[in-house]
Structure to design on (740 residues):
């Protein structure tokens, strides 16, 4: 008898001998329902309950039942989805709750539309700029709690696709371009979210790196390159979060749709990584019954076109073996046990509004990136700055957010749309009623603050000229279902910034963007602050940074190129005429026939790796971000046996500040992948003048190379160059790491 079984036997013995039954946190032991014993492992519990299930009960776990807010995807049980994205029946007689599923990338979707409330965190890309694991955990905790309080028990958050192309309309939902950083941050977010008893999810698996033709595009990439880049990010995230679910994506990968891709699902995810949860298709991303089931898809969403009656027929005719159905169902059950959903079935509660706001504000304060600060134009000194011109981007009333299925409803409504107008469409431009102007005025009560909408360049320039400081707000909206045509700020915003900067050299630009933008005006302005899609309390966080109550510490997790010409694909390959008009979910008929593909020639050289390997200069490099103080690095030592580095970081300025110290390494000479890779980092808080000796463990996973012939990893022996510094293009300390 295993130790675990022995201990469960012991608990059962105590329970029955002393009658300790029904204590609040100890679910009653029921000899008829041995799977309800929380001492057993999720695997054991899943096995036990599976044995009791009929074929129909198993099959019911393998498909959705429609989607509340979709015109097309309605089924009799749609209403049970509680206003969320989907619903999967449970097995009530056996104590298995249904899955009540909601989108929740940066907060619970559609709460406002359902008469509820939820916090919008800063966008996922924004939060990743904190490089802060604790912040990611709090991010996930708040979302997990708010899901539960609204009656959901499964999230569809957890985007970790690499930012291969910054024009991807979903860049704001992901955690940047580096596999170690994105995987670690998203993994910790989802680990803490799932700990709130919601089935966790990591998505969109895999190579869903653009939205153009997302339902048909075939991403062509070598296995080695994919393993060393996008798959590595997923692997790291999944190994940290142990999520109940992984969502396969719409696109094809090397020919097969991701949701019927035996290499991605069975071989890599389930066999190589030992993932125990279930794979659900993106909404409408299932394309077959037998092929998908055999390849490792466990659950079709949100309908039952392939995994409903068709799957049952395939089982009855022997085309799909029963063992495959057991395998799928066991995985869904495992997810319910591992997340604690069975022991803590969904129950509505009350959202802690204040706590959500505070967490959202604290995370945004760590995520704002100061990109330029000439002559210390920031922080605003009220002794010298008596008047401020605030210009553009509706900064008098609010800040913009990211659209699509990630969209969180703004409590208070869309700030630029009169109440009652404009029913929410998933691609509406939504402005949270979080006015940076008002937040700044509250911090600077004696400063005269004027506003100009920026529509008339002359009038904006006039206000700037007559003010001590001009702050131009510039926004770039993005969403699922589309890519950005370019990285330029849309509309007249570049011209507006030029005009204002010409009128007042003390001009600061605040960017509210979901991804990188180009900045033709960079040389003319004094300051640039990247605030991202800033969430429910973004205005307060931003005001604190602008006045210096918070010293910025965020650093870019995505390279800002000077021009689209420097990207691996200067233009996203356009859809052939016959594929245009493929609606975002019109997937099946046309999809198979399409030949639209994107060849990822850049391979694993994503973001900063591409720029380095191609000798291109970015506008702002990966890992870059300024502070109101300065830091100096010295004394690098490498302990090759322990695989750690030690170095000293000193705050050389006169303000307290936090530095993210970054550690990179390069493969030994002769390796065919010459670019540096992030292998570790640390956030260090330092008082003025303070020095700290910092130890960082070197994560060797990004240094391993993948052998396609035998599907194995190799950490080549040799001398690796280790580099430490404030950002990827500035690593003043170097030393050697010996791998034997
Ligand atoms: C998106 C997913 C989302 C799903 C359900 C799809 O369009 O790609 O990220 O979870 O819809 O809303």
């Amino acid at each position: 008898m295993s130790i675990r079984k022995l201990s469960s036997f012991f608990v059962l013995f105590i329970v029955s001998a002393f009658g300790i039954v029904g204590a609040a946190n100890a679910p009653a032991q029921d000899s008829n329902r041995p799977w309800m014993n929380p001492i057993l492992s999720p695997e054991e519990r899943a096995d036990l309950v599976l044995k009791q299930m009929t074929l129909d009960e198993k099959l019911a776990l393998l498909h959705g039942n429609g989607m509340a807010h979709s015109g097309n995807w309605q089924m009799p049980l749609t209403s049970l989805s509680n206003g969320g994205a989907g619903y999967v029946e449970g097995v009530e007689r056996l104590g298995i709750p249904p899955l009540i599923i909601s989108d929740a990338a940066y907060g619970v979707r559609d709460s406002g539309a359902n008469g509820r409330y939820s916090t919008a965190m800063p966008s996922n890309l924004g939060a990743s700029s904190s490089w802060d694991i604790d912040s990611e955990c709090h991010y996930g905790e708040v979302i997990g709690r708010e899901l539960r309080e609204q009656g959901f028990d499964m999230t569809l958050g957890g985007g970790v696709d690499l930012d291969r192309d910054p024009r991807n309309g979903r860049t704001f939902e992901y955690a940047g371009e580096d596999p170690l950083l994105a995987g670690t941050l998203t993994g910790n977010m989802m680990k803490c979210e799932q700990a709130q008893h919601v089935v966790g999810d990591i998505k969109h698996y895999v190579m869903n790196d653009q939205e153009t033709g997302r339902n048909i595009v075939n991403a062509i990439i070598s296995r080695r390159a994919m393993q060393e880049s996008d798959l590595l990010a997923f692997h790291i995230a999944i190994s940290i979060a142990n999520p109940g679910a992984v969502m396969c994506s719409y696109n094809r990968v090397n020919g097969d749709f991701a949701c019927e891709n035996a290499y991605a699902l069975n071989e890599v995810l389930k066999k190589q990584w030992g993932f125990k949860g279930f794979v659900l298709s993106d909404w409408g991303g299932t394309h077959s019954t037998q092929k998908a089931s055999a390849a490792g898809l466990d659950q079709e969403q949100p309908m039952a076109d392939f995994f409903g009656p068709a799957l049952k027929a395939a089982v009855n005719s022997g085309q799909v073996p029963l063992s495959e159905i057991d395998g799928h169902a066991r995985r869904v059950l495992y997810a319910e046990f591992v997340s604690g959903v069975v022991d803590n079935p969904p129950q509505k509660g009350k959202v802690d509004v204040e706590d959500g706001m505070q967490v959202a504000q604290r995370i945004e304060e760590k995520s704002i990136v100061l990109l330029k600060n000439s002559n210390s134009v920031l922080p605003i000194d009220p002794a010298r700055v008596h008047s401020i011109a605030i210009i553009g981007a509706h900064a008098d009333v609010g800040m913009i957010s990211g659209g699509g299925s990630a969209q969180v409803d703004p409590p208070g409504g869309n700030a630029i749309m009169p109440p009652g107008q404009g029913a929410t469409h998933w691609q509406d431009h939504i402005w949270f009623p979080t006015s940076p102007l008002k937040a700044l005025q509250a911090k600077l009560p004696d400063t005269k603050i004027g506003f100009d909408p920026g529509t008339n360049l002359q009038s904006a320039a006039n206000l700037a000229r007559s003010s001590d400081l001009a702050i131009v707000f510039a926004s770039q909206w993005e969403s699922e279902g589309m890519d950005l045509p370019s990285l330029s700020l849309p509309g007249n915003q570049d011209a507006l910034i030029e005009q204002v900067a010409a009128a007042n050299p003390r001009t600061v630009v605040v960017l509210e963007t979901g991804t990188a933008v180009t900045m033709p005006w960079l040389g003319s302005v004094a300051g640039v602050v990247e605030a991202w899609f800033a969430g429910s309390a973004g205005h307060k966080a931003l005001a604190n940074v602008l006045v210096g109550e918070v010293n910025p510490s965020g650093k870019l997790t995505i390279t800002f190129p000077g021009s689209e010409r420097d990207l691996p694909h200067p233009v996203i390959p356009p859809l052939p005429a016959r594929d245009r008009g493929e609606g975002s979910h019109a997937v099946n008929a046309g999809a198979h026939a399409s030949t639209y593909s994107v060849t990822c020639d850049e391979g694993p050289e994503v973001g900063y790796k591409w720029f380095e390997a191609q000798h291109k200069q970015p506008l702002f490099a990966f890992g870059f971000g300024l502070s109101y103080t300065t830091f100096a690095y010295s004394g690098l030592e490498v302990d090759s046996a322990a695989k750690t580095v030690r170095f000293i970081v000193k705050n050389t300025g006169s303000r307290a500040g936090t530095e993210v110290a970054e550690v990179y390494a390069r493969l030994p000479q002769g390796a065919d992948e010459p670019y540096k890779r992030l292998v570790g980092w640390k956030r260090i808080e330092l008082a003025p003048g303070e020095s700290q000796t910092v130890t960082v463990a070197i994560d060797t996973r990004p240094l391993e190379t993948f052998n396609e012939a035998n599907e194995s990893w190799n950490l080549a022996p040799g001398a690796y160059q280790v580099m430490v510094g404030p950002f990827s293009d500035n690593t003043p300390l170097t030393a050697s790491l010996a791998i034997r």
